[in-house]
Amino acid sequence: MYLLWPETKQKLSELMLTISQKAAAYKRKVVFELRIYVIVREIEREAIAATKYLMSKVNEEKSTEIKERAFDVKSMGVVRRSTIRNISDNGGFVEDNLCTGIGGTRWGCEAVIIGNLDQILQKK
Questions:
Q1: 111 domain-assigned
Q2: Global confidence as pTM
Q3: How many domains does the chain divide into?
Q4: Across 1-124, where does the E strand assignment appear?
């Protein structure tokens, strides 16, 4: 089992291929799981509005304090989360329906798939 954090589709594909090849060298097969939040509404713009509403309730100062207290604040995964947030657009989107803007609110799994049900299902 290999637990993935949110990433672009290309990065996820590359990582899964690399890990699968390494496992194959030991005659093993890996099952992948993705830890990510989902905000789904009937219409995509409603899902985006819900996400923006949640983000508007965040106290940035408190959020920074919580993130800096985390034991893993310098881990490779957490550093990558910051990097992916920095390459996102003004709405926090790094690719279609993948929003990293919510990552400014917490540490750990710092992205969310946003959209209507069809968009969510197509994101796999």
A1: yes
A2: 0.73
A3: 1
A4: 2-4, 32-34, 37-40, 93-95, 98-99, 112-115
